[in-house]
Specification:
It comes from Methylobacterium indicum. This protein is an all-alpha fold. Helix content is about 60%, strand content about 0%. The chain contains eleven helices and two strands; from the N terminus they run αααααααααααββ. α1 packs across α2, α1 packs across α3 and α9 crosses α10. The radius of gyration is 22 Å and the shape is flat.
Length: about 250
């Protein structure tokens, strides 16, 4: 059992090529899961679709059990939002066995991709140069898909305007952009509350993305004296305290 634990710890926490490939594989699995959620919303609940649900649920279960096995204090893992996201994803994927699940909770599985930030910074200069834009875009995308899932889960079957995931996505985007064509509306008090959340939170995230897109590009390099993080690409002195900087030039890709 100890050997198995050590092998798992190497895969999840190691710094060699194999663990890095393994963790990128987990990210690819999460993205494929998201694609399956969208596609399966157009399909009838046939045994094949439910079987894939169960297989993915089993894979997520194996992942969280592996993480608990290598954790020195497993109880602390349940203080992490990502752990509860995993549990919600498991319950949703195994819903064909225990009953109807809240499919939108599966998107919470993507929260674990934020743990790859350090690796992405090290592996991709494009990510390092555009980190703030990419993170703002991911935050907006996660919010859109979570709210789309909530709209689909709460309105599908009782709102004729929400027939599939794309209908819910269409409503979310038109609300977020305040376009509001009016051809799709949510029913009931809960529907109105969801609409308010989409408009307020969505516009905030959208404005954040616009802000990082249009402001002048700066590099992230902490000043050794005052700690200022962002500087012009050709800065030789910190504009806050005047300390000399030695910002590395990555050169051409």
């Amino acid at each position: 059992m100890t050997d198995l634990t050590e092998r798992l710890r190497t895969l999840y926490e190691g710094d060699s090529d194999r663990p890095h490939r393994f963790r990128y594989g987990l990210l690819a699995f999460d993205l494929a899961t998201l694609l399956f959620i969208v596609v399966s919303s157009f399909m009838p609940r046939e045994p094949l679709v439910e079987g894939v649900d169960v297989l993915i649920g089993a894979a997520v279960t194996a992942d969280i059990l592996s993480r608990l096995a290598i954790c020195p204090r497993p109880g602390r893992e349940f203080l992490r939002p990502t752990t509860w996201a995993d549990l919600a994803a498991i319950a949703s994927f195994l819903a064909p066995i225990v009953g109807e699940g809240a499919g939108f909770l599966r998107i919470l599985r993507l929260l674990r991709t934020y743990q790859l930030l350090d690796r992405l910074r090290a592996d991709f200069s494009f990510f390092r140069r555009n980190e703030e834009v990419i993170i703002a875009a991911v935050n907006l995308a996660v919010f859109v898909f979570v709210m789309t899932g909530i709209v689909f889960a709460t309105q599908h079957g009782r709102n004729p305007a929400i027939g599939n995931y794309v209908d819910a996505l269409y409503f979310t985007v038109t609300s977020l952009t305040t376009t509001g064509y009016g051809d799709v509306t949510l029913q009931g008090t809960s529907g109105r509350l969801v609409s308010v959340v989409v408009m307020i939170c969505g516009v905030t995230l959208f404005l954040r993305l616009a802000q990082v897109l249009f402001r002048p590009y700066k590099v992230r390099f902490p000043c050794p004296t005052c700690g200022l993080q962002r500087h012009e690409t050709d800065a030789v002195h910190c504009k806050a305290c005047g300390t000399g900087l030695n910002i590395p030039d990555e050169g051409a890709d």
